[in-house]
Structures are given as structure tokens and as C-alpha cells.
Write a structure and sequence with these properties.
Layout (H helix, E strand, L loop, with lengths): L2 H9 L14 H19 L20 H4 L12 H15 L10 H28 L8 H7 L2 H30 L4 H19 L11 H10 L7 H6 L5 H19 L1 E8 L6 E7 L7 H22 L8 E3 L2 E4 L1 H5 L21 H29 L4 H10 L2 E2 L7 H9 L2 H22 L7 H26 L1 H6 L4
Antiparallel strand pairs: 1-2, 1-5, 3-4
Helix pairs in contact: 1-5, 2-7, 2-8, 4-5, 4-12, 4-14, 5-7, 6-7, 8-18, 11-18, 12-14, 14-17, 15-16, 17-18
Length: 487
């Protein structure tokens, strides 16, 4: 008996959101999407019961927060972290062909979805338990624990239970959007989190006596003379002028929009409807930028492992030396991604970098290599596991009644044509996005958004715009839904 037969009773009984029967009107899709988005904002503002105010070692996810969504100390503390980690495990297992599942088989599809949910629950436990019970990441209110008579351990258990519920909720919120709404729940949550940071980076007005954080309030102070630029050019370029951050943010927007429009268009014609023609676009960023979430999540989990080990054992110096919860030398330091200008600009007096220049250079090269190679690898995995590969694409074109003019109407022929473009473009696009994310992190962006987070937000927003336009087109011309099998 194989693993599928053994696990089938459990995996087929995993709770799931039912797919809609027939076509869902566009307005209803928008309503579901808006409702889930409001629910997401609501949950990120509910602080977990029993959590102590202050005394924490900072946000556990730290600078990875913008791509893993969620909110520190809220019910959605874990964000999409468990979902992304489970996807990494599944993609690695699927890439090594260890699962033995055929995603074209309805039974195997149910098993795959059930396995994904089970892995997410496991990852919620593996991530949440150390976060609550190890170190001081989420300290509990000892006075509240005494008054309730449950003890610190009991209150920590209550804290983990809330975190577990939040992790499961965000899993099903993502599923509701993917089946009943527009776009992807994961993408929508990333957009929501990054957009908040961008708005704060542009318009945040500080309290009296605190440092100016918003770009426009800072420039209002510079123009009126209430903020002095000393030294002038350095303050203008970095803080508080933030000219470099504004330039980097605008550059990322422009580059992503441009690369999304760079494509190879393969002509198609309909076999049954004479004169009906179309094009299949193979974009430069064919796998989208979503595989970058997987790469950054892998880095976040490596740093998570280092923090946990540092809390329990004394690590050798070559493995990692930590200061205030962050690696400052050793292997874990070199594996930590560059997240801001202050991580590498040792030549500027505005920043204090404790490492030597040669150490910083090695760290930058490791991060660049990790992102370029990891981006290419995960892009390939993403294409193969999401039905975007040459074989799956050829079947989709064949099933829609389309064919490539001048070639026989045969899926194998279409597949060979697709193999000329898709694998090469996937690798090039994944590597390009990885390099762009590192460069954006190094230069800094408005609101302290990570380069990867901004990259994801722009690309997801662009794709969401395309999907909304497609949905509106389908709504206006119902015959197109029948042609492309949407009904």
C-alpha cells in the first residue's frame, strides 16, 4: 500500500471551500474580494489576548514582514508564512517527483489540495510554537496569567491557540478569493501590507518632538526651514530628503511595468471559427514574481533557525554571533539578505556598519547569488506545478480549440513550439527578478518597504488589473466564456 492509499482518508476529509457551480458574476467576485480584504485589515488590528506590551525582541519576521503579510502581535502574526513554506516543501517534493501525483487526475487534485492544507497546519505549529515558547519574541502578561490562575505556560498556550486560528483563517481567506474572488489571496494580502507602508512613507506626520518619517512632511519642513540638511547632499539623498528612496521606488514601478509588457507572442487561430485569431503571450517574467516569495521565505526560515539555535545553545563563532537578536558575523550573517542601505554602506557617515568591507562584499555576493539562482529554480518549479509548462500549455490551447497556423493540430506539435520559448524565458525572468529585488533592497525604498515587497506589489497589481479587464470582457461577451471553457 502506497502513501496515497494510507493518507487518502485524512487528506480527502480536510475542510475546503467549495467551488462555485457555473459562472460567478464579476460584481459578486469584487464583493467577495473586498469583503476578504476588509476582514484581513480587521484581523491585523486585533491584538492577541494575553500579550504583554513592550519587552519583546522585536518583530520575529522583521524585514521579511512586507512579503509575508500579517502584523506583529495580531491574530495574523504568522501572515502567509506557513502557506508559503508549505508551498516550498510541495514544490521541492513535486520537482523531485516524490509525490507521484498527477494534477490532471481529479482524485490526485483532491489529495494534493488536502496535502497542502495539512502541510500548512504543520508549518503553523512548527513556526508558532517556537515563536511563543522560545525566547522573548511574544512575551505574555505575567500579571494577567496570575489573575486568571493559568500560569505563564497556560497563557502562552492561549496565545498559540489564537495564532493557530489566525493561521487557519488566512489559509481559507486565500482559498475564498482564489475560488470566488479576483486574483490571489496571497497577492492581495501582500498588496495590502506594502500599500500601508508606502502610504505611511509618503504622508506619515510624526508626533511633536519625534523624527519626521513621511516624504512630503519632511520636504515641507525642508522648504519652510524647520528641518536643516546637515551635511547638505547626504541629508538630501538619504534621510530626511530621501531622494534616492523616491528614485528607487519610481524605478521599480517603471521597470516592472516595462518588463511585464516585454513578450513573445505566438499567433493562434481557431480551428472551428474561421477568421477567429489570437495570440499566446510568453512574457519576459513568465513565472511572475511570486516565486520570489518562496526564495525570501526560505531565507526567512534560515534566519528563524539561527535565532532559535542562538536561544538554546552557544553557537560557534563561525556559525553565527548574534547581537540584539540579529547575526553580526559567521555563517548566518553571510546568509542574511541585504535589506536596506544601512546593511552595506560602510563608506557613508550616515550609517554605522559593524562589519568589515570585505565581509559586507561577501554578504552582498551571497545574497545576489542566492536570489538569482533561487529565483530561476523556483520559477521553473512554479511554472511546472501551476500548469504553465509547455505540455500543460499545449493541452490548454488544444482544448480551447485553438492551433498554431502552419502547424498540424496536435498537442505534441504545439508543445515543441512552446519548448522553444517557455523554459528559457522562465529562467531568464526568474534570475532578472532576483537581481532586481537585491538592487532595490540595497538602494532603499519609500516607507522602508523591502525591494522584494515593492516588486511583488507592482507586479501583482499589474496582473490584477489585467485579470479585472479580462473578467469585464468575459462579462460583456458571454460567448468568450464558452470558447475558453469558463462556464
Amino acid at each position: 500500500m502506497g502513501w496515497k492509499e494510507t493518507a487518502e482518508p485524512v487528506l480527502t476529509r480536510m475542510p475546503t471551500v467549495e467551488r462555485p457551480e457555473g459562472h460567478v458574476p464579476f460584481k459578486r467576485k469584487l464583493a467577495w474580494t473586498a469583503g476578504i480584504l476588509v476582514m484581513y485589515f480587521f484581523l491585523t488590528n486585533i491584538t492577541m489576548f494575553g500579550l504583554a506590551t513592550g519587552g519583546a525582541e522585536g518583530d520575529f519576521y522583521g524585514r521579511f514582514r512586507s512579503i509575508l503579510a500579517g502584523s506583529q502581535g495580531s491574530i495574523l502574526q504568522l501572515g502567509i508564512g506557513p502557506i508559503v513554506t508549505a508551498s516550498i516543501v510541495l514544490q521541492l517534493l513535486g520537482g523531485a517527483n516524490l509525490l507521484g501525483l498527477d494534477t490532471d487526475d481529479p482524485r490526485d487534485q483532491i489529495l494534493y489540495q488536502g496535502l497542502q492544507k495539512l502541510l500548512v497546519i504543520v508549518m503553523i505549529c512548527l513556526t508558532g510554537l517556537p515563536m511563543v515558547f522560545a525566547g522573548n519574541f511574544l512575551p505574555v502578561d505575567s500579571q494577567l496569567a496570575s489573575s486568571l490562575g493559568v500560569g505563564v505556560t497556560g497563557l502562552k498556550t492561549v496565545l498559540f491557540a489564537q495564532m493557530f486560528v489566525g493561521g487557519v483563517l488566512i489559509l481559507f481567506m486565500d482559498e475564498v478569493i482564489s475560488k470566488w474572488g479576483v486574483g490571489s489571496g496571497i497577492g492581495l494580502f501582500i498588496i495590502a501590507g506594502v500599500s500601508q507602508q508606502l502610504v505611511a512613507g509618503l504622508f506619515a506626520i510624526p508626533a511633536l518632538g519625534t523624527q519626521v518619517t513621511g516624504f512630503f512632511p519632511a520636504w515641507f519642513g525642508i522648504i519652510t526651514g524647520s528641518i536643516e540638511l546637515d551635511p547638505f547632499f547626504q541629508s538630501l539623498l538619504f534621510d530626511p530628503g530621501n531622494i534616492l528612496a523616491l528614485f528607487t521606488t519610481a524605478l521599480i514601478f517603471a521597470v516592472v511595468v516595462y518588463t511585464e509588457s516585454v513578450r513573445v507572442e505566438i499567433p493562434l487561430s481557431h480551428a472551428r471559427v474561421k477568421g477567429a485569431r489570437g495570440r499566446f503571450p510568453v512574457k519576459l517574467i513568465y513565472a511572475s514574481v511570486l516565486p520570489m516569495i518562496l526564495v525570501r521565505a526560505l531565507q526567512a526560515n534560515i534566519q528563524f533557525l539561527g535565532q532559535i539555535l542562538n536561544n538554546y545553545v552557544t553557537l560557534p563563532a563561525f556559525i553565527g554571533v548574534y547581537s540584539q537578536g540579529q547575526p553580526v558575523s559567521g555563517l548566518f550573517y553571510y546568509l542574511a539578505p541585504i535589506q536596506s542601505r544601512s546593511d552595506w554602506m560602510w563608506f557613508s557617515g550616515a550609517f554605522t556598519v559593524g562589519a568589515e568591507p570585505w565581509q559586507i562584499i561577501i554578504r552582498v555576493l551571497v545574497d545576489l547569488t542566492f536570489m538569482i539562482i533561487g529565483g530561476a529554480i523556483f520559477a521553473v518549479f512554479w511554472v511546472e506545478t501551476t500548469g504553465m509548462g509547455p505540455e500543460a500549455t499545449a493541452k490548454q490551447i488544444q482544448n480551447s480549440g485553438m492551433q498554431i497556423p502552419g502547424f498540424r493540430k496536435n498537442p505534441q506539435v504545439i508543445e515543441k513550439v512552446m519548448e522553444r520559448y517557455i523554459p528559457q524565458v522562465t529562467v531568464i525572468g526568474g534570475a532578472l527578478v532576483g537581481a532586481l529585488a537585491v538592487i532595490a533592497n540595497m538602494l532603499g525604498t519609500l516607507g522602508g518597504v523591502s525591494g522584494t515587497g515593492l516588486l511583488l506589489t507592482v507586479s501583482i497589481t499589474y496582473k490584477l488589473y489585467e485579470e479585472i479587464a479580462e473578467e469585464q470582457l468575459m462579462e460583456m461577451h458571454p460567448m468568450m466564456r464558452q470558447m475558453f471553457g469558463d462556464d
